[in-house]
Amino acid sequence: MTAAVLVAVAFGLVVGAEVFVPRWQLRQTGHVTVPPASASPEAVVRAYIRADDAHDERASRAMETPRFARQESQANEPGPAHLRILRVFGTFPEPAADASAGYAQVQRVMTDIEITDTWSIFGSRFDPGPEPRDFTMVRDRDSEPWRVAEFGI
């Protein structure tokens, strides 16, 4: 009896996950080139959004700080199937916060992105449309590439 209940619960979780996060959202649809170390914070954000849109996890992780990459890997929450950057408003100096502590250079890149499809995760529904997104970019020296330390709305 217990085994049957466990099998039913496991089946329900798999079917439920398929309803909320369709399999096609998880597949990589392209490869993104990671910008060179000389790239501006804005260029890195643009490439990061392209990598997220293509579900190119290798490229995304290469543009993140080690701490943020660990957080993103552990979150295991797929995002929307399609994103695009609408506008980059600019780059502004940002005071150090938890995510950027220890880095000599910190910049905030303010953008608008567009989610071009409806997606759901953990029962929350997100509809298509523009969404503000701020990226905290960090590095220690001019010779190092900018990395995403965190992003948010």
Structure described in brief:
The chain contains 4 helices and 6 strands; from the N terminus they run H-H-H-H-E-E-E-E-E-E. It is an alpha+beta fold. About 14% of the residues have low confidence.
Q: In words, what does this structure look like?
A:
This protein has 153 residues and is an alpha+beta fold. 32% of the residues lie in helices and 29% in strands. The strands form 2 sheets. A 4-stranded antiparallel β-sheet has the order 1-2-5-6, covered by helices on one side. A two-stranded antiparallel ribbon has the order 3-4. It is globular and about 40 Å long. Mean pLDDT is 76; it is low at 4-25.
Q: Provide the low-confidence segments as ranges.
A: 4-25
Radius of gyration, Cα only, in angstroms?
A: 18 Å
Q: Number of DSSP strands?
A: 6
Number of helices: 4
Give the distance, in angstroms, between the N- and C-terminal Cα atoms.
47 Å
Please, what is the average pLDDT? 76
Instruction: Give the H and E element order.
Output: HHHHEEEEEE
Q: Biggest sheet, in brief?
A: 4 strands, antiparallel
Q: Identify the strand order in the major beta sheet.
A: 1-2-5-6
- Structural class given helices, strands, pairing? alpha+beta
* Morphology: globular
Helix content: 25-40%
Strand content: 25-35%
Task: Please give the structural blueprint.
Elements: H1 2-20, H2 41-54, H3 57-62, H4 66-75, E1 83-93, E2 105-115, E3 119-121, E4 124-126, E5 129-139, E6 147-152
Which key features would you list for this structure?
153 residues; alpha+beta; four-stranded antiparallel β-sheet; two-stranded antiparallel ribbon; 32% helix
